[in-house]
Write a structure and sequence with these properties.
The complex is a heterodimer of chains A (464) and B (502). Chain A has 464 residues and is α/β, with parallel strands linked by helices. Chain A has helices at residues 10-13, 18-21, 26-44, 49-58, 66-70, 85-88, 92-100, 118-127, 149-164, 188-201, 217-220, 222-231, 235-247, 255-272, 284-296, 324-332, 430-434, 452-457, and strands at 74-75, 133-134, 144-145, 177-179, 207-209, 279-281, 308-312, 337-341, 350-352, 358-359, 364-369, 381-390, 399-409, 422-423, 428-429. The two termini of chain A are 33 Å apart. Chain B has 502 residues and is α/β, with parallel strands linked by helices. The chains are: A alpha/beta (464), B alpha/beta (502).
Chain lengths: 464, 502
Amino acid sequence: MTASTFSGAPETWTRLPVQTLFSLSKPELDTLQLLWAQKRFGELQDHIPALESLAEKQGVKIIDSFDTLATILFTHQVYKNYPFAFIERKQFTELTRWLNKLTTHDLSRLDMRGVQTIDEWLERLDESGMFVFHSTGTSGKLSFFPRSQTEKEAWVESTYAFLEAFMPGIRDTHLPVFWPAYRSGRQAGMRLITHFGPALAGSEAEYHSLFDAPMSADFMSLAMRMKHAQERGDLTTMDTIKAIFKTKGEIITLKARKAGLTKNFFDKMVREYRGRRVFLMASATDLLDVALEGIQNGESRIFAPDSVLLTGGGFKGRKEVPDWKGILQEFYGVDRVFMSYGMTELNSYNLACSKGVYHVFPWNIPLVLSNDGEPLPRTGTQTGRAGYFDLLAQTYWGGILTGDRITVHYDEDCGCGWKGPWIEDNVQRFTELMGGEDIISCAGVQSAYSDFMEYVAADVPEGA
Amino acid sequence: MFFYIIPRMSSDNPIQIPFIIRGQEITANDLLYQSRDRKVQFQIPDPRPLLSQIVLSDPTQLQRDFAHVRVGEIIDFLAEAGKAMTLNHARMEDACRFSMPFSALPSSIVKGSYDLIPIVFSKLALRTMVENEIGSQYLDGWVEMPYADKIARRRAYGARTLHFISGNVPVVAALSIARAALIKSDNIVKVAPNDPLTAWAIVGAMLDVDPNHPVTKHFSVVYWPKDMPDFEHELIQPRYLEKIISWGGAMGGVNSTLNHGSLQASGIDVIALGPKFSISILGSQAFKSDEEINRIAKLTAKDAGSFNMESCGSARFHFVQTTTDQAKAYARRLYLHMQNQDPALSAMPKNFPTELHDELEAARTQDDLYYVVGGEKQEGAVVVSLTGEAPDFFPTHKVVVVIPFTGSPAQLAERIHPSTQTVGIYPESLKDELRDVLVARGVCRFISIGHTIDYAIGGPFNSYEIMRRACRWILDESQPSKSSRPWFYLRKAWQIFKHHIF
């Protein structure tokens, strides 16, 4: 395979077969990626104010090496460093002005008058041609990621390329889809299922979600409001938030209720779809809980062996069960458990191969940085902080610096037959690596809220 | 991560942290403490077989041992031990040197903080502490209350106390130990992994002076790892303890399922010293001229940068009554002064958090919202919020947030976080306007700017008096006999008269 197959723009690569995507030699891939990184930078630099100021500060005028690229990545805070007061005070014009610094689209003339909620704000942005993704806000504050309709096709196609790897011919196949969470929404995983749920299922009827309601961004941001209110002992606001909980209570009130609903959902799935080929995407913990109970009741091999079972994320602080993938295979009856590793900031997920390691599509450039932020050489095996450049980004800056610690193998093949850099299956958040000591200090803030977020965020499968 | 390579400390040969239990030093390498990144580790004895020695099962022992020991004698003893708490004594020098890898503070500040320890143990400081906060007569005997219709006498007794001390600044260990010794308590000190040695060195100095002194006999310095809930449940019981003094929040040092409510219900009094932070409020007078801005910034830099902001008294948010342009000018001066401070109080931050660095980088991309001075390396920074809204990150490691405001400073009260401890106010006259409203919002201490580290000895801390609360206050009431009543009324009249006149 030569690079001529890749002569188009990165968004056209997404339609190439998986084998082709992972066929480039290292020099071919490096040349191609660097060329496109420079091209994107050239196009975007003067049109994204936040990029302009970062590049100016770093003295970057041209991207002549991957090391230079590594100096102009946006940290994840860039997508959530608006003052939270903008949301509390419903200052959506100010919030739009903040977002406008991160996109080439001109949002300055958007009329945000009358916007009362984050959901309404996002809806208005959608109407204007934006396609903003938000985070789950586990930290209590939502990130807003300024994707737009320009990227939508590449996002859809790159996701198909990812799915194609486990389901050859997926673009023309329809399978019942099971998703134990909200039906739709604008959080990254929700954007995906909103589109792919009905698309993969071929109809709304065969797309089965745990809840019928969409996920509300306002609901996800309640944790931060609750935290502020608790810190201030502001009972009025806390009551208001509790009232919102009651009205949204149909969706989730307590973890216990969610557990019951999830069980019914899986029971129905097992009862009515036994022996059929299905598409099931859920968190590893949800899948395992159901499987362990099922096996105890003497059930196994529920679905057709070529069903797709896709999961990601970790065990959320729970102890990892040995051979959990084997247990899932046994209960659900699938030949393989497919794993993904991705993030809001990237258009497509990284794909786990038959060897269980993550391959990075050629439109994503993995970069590894030291703890001090220095780029590590792109040779051999490197462990450090993960940076990525997403070449599919055309209206926002594709360079991001994550809080993940990854190990990338640049030169050797993993043995699955695919070429290109691959990431070991041991991705960890730096905060998880560092936190949790019984260090005591008199300096800080009394934290008032504890597991509030747990049951708000509990409905988004990790890795989604 | 740590730059101070200590010869005796390597991952193959972690240092041993000895326990001191009631005048006896115990060294063993039964257990290994390891931080998650494995860069910090130490070995400790297994506390489980030592439980019966750690606790004081017979509470009357405490009263027997201190029955004839007066506060003055304790001060003499502590001051004698204090002489051995300077860095030219081997035990202290070892503790200081070995503390450096564990502390979040750079070595110059750890050393600076160790230099304060013998000052805490000087006769003058100890006397000031006990007299200002309690009055030694209440610890040495019964004191009659003037207003009473009977003979009512009060006395402060020490209690069996478990201390979870904080490890952010070594002098905290010294203050905790000095207070506890002065009130004749029985003390079990659980050290924090960010300062596992200072308490050992201080109590060790007492042990060197007299291992059989009642004060020494009633001190234990121990550590147990967080995955030892059974030990914790065995130890934390009302039959062994009357009080828990917990830095870092209600149950800051407790790792197991014990909770504050159930402990209080069991009869153990939990004195929770929750984490706090401090701020500055500068009125428009501070911005009259460039010279004035510079002068003020030099003072507030001291409040902000001292102990590299590892202390609860560090002023992290500066509210300034001025324009954004002036606020920027102030931020530049503040940054410069914070970068040029006494190395014993403020130096290059150690282990600057990546998250915070990323916040600064992110702030720089939104130049309508934030103005960032410095922070390029890991030296600290000053961030001005151009919208007047506080950013949502918590400033540490010599990063300060400047928030300009307009209108009356009293309106700021709305924005004061309940964890606010100290407020530096300029000009002084503004204090009158702000004091009561800020107290209502949770503020505990007011200072003239530039003086946050000059805590008044024996003053209240975080709005309460720890020594008083650490005592058990006992009342002894007797009814005067019929025949002695005239004398009783006369005495009362004299007491009340004295109370009013003097």
